[in-house]
Amino acid sequence: MKILVINGPNLNMLGIREPDIYGKATYKDLVEFIGSAADSLGAEVDFYQSNHEGDLVDRIQQAYGVFDGIVINPAAYTHTSVALLDAVKSVGIPTVEVHISDVREREDFRQVSYIRLGCIGAVMGKGFDGYVEAIKILMDYTAGQSSKEDVQ
Ligand code: CA2
User: Fold this and answer.
1) Does residue 52 carry a catalytic annotation?
2) What is the dihedral of CA 11, 111, 88, 93, to 10 degrees?
3) Is the distance from the beta carbon of residue 14 to the nearest atom of ligand 1 less than 6 Å?
4) Closest by alpha carbon to 137, among 78, 97, 85?
5) Is any atom of ligand 1 closer than 6 Å to the C-beta of 10?
6) Strand order in 69-73's β-sheet?
7) Which of 11, 12, 131 maximizes ligand 1 atoms within 8 Å of its Cβ, making it the mutation to test the pocket?
8) Catalytic residue, candidates 22, 48, 77, 131
9) pTM of the predicted structure, to 2 decimals
10) CB distance 70 to 17 below 8 Å
11) Which of 19, 75, 98, 148 is most deeply buried (CB count within 10 A of its CB)?
12) Residue from 17, 37, 68 nearest 133 by CA
């Protein structure tokens, strides 16, 4: 299974500020952590990070026909971007939304997620482990879909 892990704006700054919310580990640490967990699970992962909404839309579109699943932390664009929602809907690739922090316990403006409407699941407040949980959700979902196809 090929999974694209996408991170949105400012997540390249992980470990540099706000360690109380996002931890002390860096974006590079995050990539290494997910990469080694994915290896153990038998999933192939690729990574993309951008601070630009249009670039994130482009990357989602390019995933069409190439990746079987998307794990996305859209960061601030979670709460503002209909374009990212439309992008995941347009490619139809099973997608799981991830947040490092527990957005449910934070400001009112973080209670809205547009992309969630196009996702098969959402994981929040579990730190870096949330990305691994998202990969497992995608693997279980895909296994369930193919067993459905077997009986048809
Ligand atoms: O909890 C998450 O993963 C978020 O997606 C992170 C976003 C925030 O806008 C969402 O509401 C929740 C912010 C990412 C900013 O990352 C930083 C990294 C280092 C220092 C400061 C911010």
Assistant:
1) no
2) 90
3) yes
4) 97
5) yes
6) 44-49, 2-7, 69-73, 95-99, 121-124
7) 11
8) 22
9) 0.96
10) no
11) 98
12) 37
Q: Is the pLDDT of residue 152 over 80?
A: no
Q: Is 99 a catalytic residue?
A: yes
Place of tokens 């369930």: 144
Tens of pLDDT, residues 98-139? 999 999 999 999 999 999 999 999 999 999 999 999 999 999
Structure tokens at 144: 């369930």
**Residue at token pair 């999974």:** 3
Q: Is 116 within 8 Å of 122 (Cβ atoms)? A: yes
Cβ atoms within 10 A of the Cβ of 4, count? 22
Concatenated DSSP letters of the chain: -EEEEEE-TTGGGTTTS-HHHH-S--HHHHHHHHHHHHHHHT-EEEEEE-S-HHHHHHHHHHTTTT-SEEEEE-GGGGGT-HHHHHHHHHHT--EEEEESS-GGGS-GGGG--SGGGG-SEEEESSTTHHHHHHHHHHHHHHHHHHHHHHH-
CA distance 131 to 87: 20
Q: How far is the CA of 84 from the centre of ligand 1 (A)?
A: 17
For the beta carbon of residue 119, count every other beta carbon within 10 angstroms: 21
